[in-house]
Amino acid sequence: MKLFSTRDNNHKSIYKDAIFQGLTPDGGLYFPESFPDMSDFIKNCHGMSFNSIAEHIVYELIKDETSKDSVKRIVNNAFTFKPEIMRVSEDISILELYTGPTCAFKDYGASFLASSMEEFLGDRKEKAVILAATSGDTGSAVAKAFEGKDNIEVVILYPSGKVSPLQEKQLTTIGGNITALEVKGTFDDCQKMVKEAFGNKDLKSKVNITSANSINIGRLVPQSLYYIYAYSQLKPGSDLMFTVPSGNFGNLTAGLFAKKWGLPVKQFIAATNNNKIVPEFLDSGIYNPRPSVQTPSNAMDVGAPSNFERMMTMFDSNVENFRKVIKGDFVNDEDTIKTMQRYYSERGQILDPHTAVGILATERFQQANSEAKKYNSLVLSTAHPGKFVEVVEDAIKVSPQLPAALSSLLNKEKVSTVIGNEYSELEKFLVTNY
Ligand SMILES: *Cc1c(COP(=O)(O)O)cnc(C)c1O
């Protein structure tokens, strides 16, 4: 898979190197040089398993740099879970992406990146230390994905006392090659410390630190797979519409990749909360990133979406090209909560706030475009409602059941290493331990 930088088209890489880079050296994002036409395969993939589809697509993408057996290992080590489709109303189904180890769609990207790194580190005979900061939600997907991986250590920084009890358990009970650093400071402190580490050449000459954040191309590729799998589960010849609850727009960008490979998607809906930077851009042509605002769907509280740059490359920086495939909409806090209440009272359906944003945006689109009711409408359901207990309880006065993968953590003992919020403390910890 040949890749280039969104900032400097002369900087090139391939998949198995780019995953260890994260960002390109000039601060841009890796973008595929070409999109192989896989429409014949996609047309004929009905009824196939998720992993068989994944093996085929991934091999097609990286066959110039690795073997079929290696792709099989990467896929089957990554995916011990698969998406489910569930109808939630007459005209809308959700694609449940929360059946992985931490009950959110980020498990797909993190698991696949982890198994890719494990595979290719074996070739290089190297060890790597994954370094990440988390405000609570996303770090656990990374931590869990890398659990027990050969030649990889993971160090996650989180702000002490500022993550929910369940989130803390998710970070601090894995053990083994996963270390939770409990920082006496804020999430911004954690992020600053990690950033400084990546910018420090002296440290990097001593410890092979690597990032696993969501802009990594190794997290995007696997997210394309479930769009294709969803198609494989529907009636052949279906016209598809996907609604993507979005924050950094990785999920949507992955869907656009799938379309480029030949998936017959009629329409994408980019659904945001009040952080409506992209819907605004689609409407006015003006891109105005700004500080994020807090909402009930807080995993989408992003004011400067990192994948916007990839979408600009894809659409030649022309808003008209975006508009041909993507419709933007945003859902405010009140309507998010009302949608959760309505689905619970009318259908007994408990939605997480992110999925609720997607569902209301879909309903509005269907009301405004009669054609759209003929499409197979799928809303990406990005998290299990049990992950957002407080918001759900507040909205519908009922406690969502915690999935077993999460409830079993509550009895486990927390193990963390407490450090101050100075970069020097992080450096000392890394140099001493790795
Ligand atoms: C990360 C996340 C999103 C946003 O996904 P992007 O790829 O950043 O657009 C939506 N919902 C949940 C639950 C998330 O964790």
Automatic annotation (TrEMBL):
One of the protein's GO biological processes: threonine biosynthetic process
Location of the Tryptophan synthase beta chain-like PALP domain: 96-379
Cofactor: pyridoxal 5'-phosphate
Alphabetized GO MF terms: threonine synthase activity
Keyword Lyase: yes
Hydrolase is among the record's keywords: no
EC numbers for this chain: 4.2.3.1
Family named by the database record: Belongs to the threonine synthase family.
Residue ranges of every copy of the Threonine synthase N-terminal domain listed in the record: 4-79
N6-(pyridoxal phosphate)lysine found at: 106
Keywords of the record: Lyase, Pyridoxal phosphate
Source taxon at top rank: Bacteria
Protein name per UniProt: Threonine synthase
